[in-house]
Design a protein that fits this description.
This protein is elongated. It is mostly helical. It has a domain at about 70-175: AhpD-like. Helix 5 crosses helix 9 (about 145-175) and helix 8 (about 125-140) crosses helix 9 (about 145-175). It has ten helices and no strands.
């Protein structure tokens, strides 16, 4: 089977229905099909298989979008870097407009896509990128990167960086294993999507 089985609401148990309703009737409803949804986008469809996990991931994502001190520019830098390094090309492509919206340069985006070290606008971009890469490769930071990250981001900022990498590692794993694709039958206003991923509430 190419992708995970597509679940409709009629297929779901009570816990799965709760996640379905959160995804279709909550703040994501404008791009998941809303109350009329017949199925969910592939990523969320995969998480329906383990709805307790899916619910945690959705809450985790909401916190990282709206409750963190780490600027959106660096969140999107982490999304692109993690997705590119783990081969989650669908997630990478999906987030390119949001990365552009947060001010990441086209040259940086294309360098990350190609697996190259990008040119950085400032030391913060460089440190976030280097920390991201080191965490994925070694689950550690070098002493120099750790100290520089703490100096520039603070202890909370470093912890938020770790959390953001973690979410998009999980997303990449799901995307790769479930063979997630961007379906033609889902569409949403690009401006609303940019606002959503920038942490703006409706």
């Amino acid at each position: 089977m190419e992708r995970f089985p597509v679940l409709t609401k009629a297929d779901l148990d009570e816990t799965q229905c709760k996640l379905w309703d959160e995804l279709t009737l909550g703040p994501r409803g404008f791009y998941t099909g809303g109350a009329e949804a017949k199925r969910l986008p592939d990523l969320y469809n995969a998480w329906l298989q383990f709805p307790e996990f899916g619910e945690l991931m959705i809450k985790f994502g909401d916190v990282l979008r709206t409750k963190t001190q780490l600027p959106g520019r660096f969140r999107e830098l982490i999304v692109l870097t993690t997705s590119a390094m783990l081969g989650a090309r669908v997630e990478f492509d999906f987030h390119v407009p949001f990365a552009q919206n947060e001010g990441l340069s086209e040259v940086l985006i294309e360098a990350i896509r190609a697996g190259e070290v990008p040119p950085f606008a400032d030391d913060l971009e460089r440190v976030v990128f280097e920390a991201n890469v080191q965490l994925l490769r070694t689950a550690m930071l070098t002493d120099g990167t750790r100290e520089e990250a703490i100096a520039l981001l603070g202890y909370r900022g470093v912890t938020e960086l770790i959390a953001t990498v973690t979410l998009y590692v999980v997303t990449a794993y799901t995307t790769n294993v479930a063979r997630v694709k961007l379906a033609d039958d889902f569409s949403a206003d690009p401006g609303k999507l940019k606002d959503f991923f920038a942490g703006k509430t409706a």
